[in-house]
Amino acid sequence: MDAMTPARFREQSRAACRDANLRAVLDHATRYFIGKRSASLEAFPGREEHFARARAARLRSLARLPDLLEELEASATAAGTVVHWAADAAEARAIVVGIARQAQAKVIVKGKSMVTEEIALNPALEAAGAEVWETDLGEFIVQLAGEPPSHIIAPAVHKSRQDVAELFAEKLGLHGQSIPELTLLARRALREKFLAADMGVTGANMAVAETGSVILVENEGNIRMSTTCPRVHVALMSLEKVAATMEDAADLLRVLPRSATGQKMSSYVSVLTGPRREGETDGAQEMHLVILDNGRSQVLADPALREALACIRCGACLNVCPVYQTIGGHAYGSVYSGPIGALLSSLLLPQDQTRDLPFGCTLCGACARTCPLSINHPKLMLALRQRVASGRANPFSAAHSMLARHPLAYRAAVAAARAVDPHLDLLPRLPGLPGLAEFAAARKPPELKAPFRARRNKERQ
């Protein structure tokens, strides 16, 4: 796969729109996720109250984040965890590579972690001479394919069963067709890596300030293996993922699995408070917690946009987003995709790389209605658009803004559009109109029977 970047979002989106197989796979997968989540929430008594409690817990943590991080460091250190602070991706990579070298780690197993993707950890560990294996099934699949993950909770959502079967045959020499067969093949291949691993690397769904605990949520058991089989466990956490108390963490855990995978509770929830103690039979002998900033402090200081940091990475907003359903995750060119990904990438990466991401949104509001924490994605997206627009002249945005401020000009433009509408098929052949020609070449909209304003006024009567 060619390297994708957020700076090429428009080009990558157009290519994804032309991929009929991708759209079919995404349609099937997102419908499945939406159905599972809906069924789970229908059987969730008092769900709105639980959502409100989870939101309150996250907002309280963000309001007290500097103090909670200090408390977390003290509690974790007291429990025997070595705490490291990383200002940016380069510093985080250097810390983890240093731990691996000190441990003389030759084989490293990893649990699913978006933060390790964000800092490009795997290439750094491999450059240091380590053999690195993703152990989440979806991450294992995309690692074999040489691709980044395309969904927050389902990294290989863009792959069909047949794609995976062909990949296993090509890369591993293993042959299977059914999902149980393919899963068993991956299990056998990875079990050897767990037993040989010197170091395990994971993310953290959250950490608890009052106890110094790291909480990890999963369904496959690979994270538990990655944190107990190797001698050394390194957990990487972005600094906003702190819960003040175990009670707050419980409020979040009641919401996260239902919204992510439609489960009452994930199959495995691990609460790790320091390394193995005397008399215990499993667990890492050495535990490290790397707390990553990488631009988040600046977001926290921005009252208009800090709400984006409340995200618990359930992925529900991706599944209902019409843009994500059409183009998938890779088109965003960033680790984080979908509505929350467009926000986070725009906030954490330089604006010259991400200026198009906030515009890859219909503002339909499906994401905000689905978010268990009621994050207002469209409002945040509009704030980002305003900041992007203030830094450059966009002729289409400027023209729309002018028309919106002048009703007579707007009505004249609508009349002109209605006159042109029956002849849109001619636009690709007209010189001097590249934007409109490109639009018309990709779609044939239905005939405009009446202006939106007229139809809306009629509905209100």
TrEMBL record:
Residues 301-332, 351-381 form the 4Fe-4S ferredoxin-type domain. Keywords: 4Fe-4S, Electron transport, Iron, Iron-sulfur, Metal-binding, Repeat, Transport. SUPFAM superfamilies: alpha-helical ferredoxin, NagB/RpiA/CoA transferase-like. It comes from the Bacteria. The keyword 4Fe-4S applies. One of its GO terms (biological process) is lactate metabolic process. It holds the Pfam family Fer4_8. One of its GO terms (molecular function) is 4 iron, 4 sulfur cluster binding. InterPro entries: 4Fe4S_Fe-S-bd, 4Fe4S_Fe_S_CS, FTHF_cligase-like_sf, Helical_ferredxn, LUD_dom, LutB/LldF, NagB/RpiA_transferase-like. This is L-lactate dehydrogenase complex protein LldF.
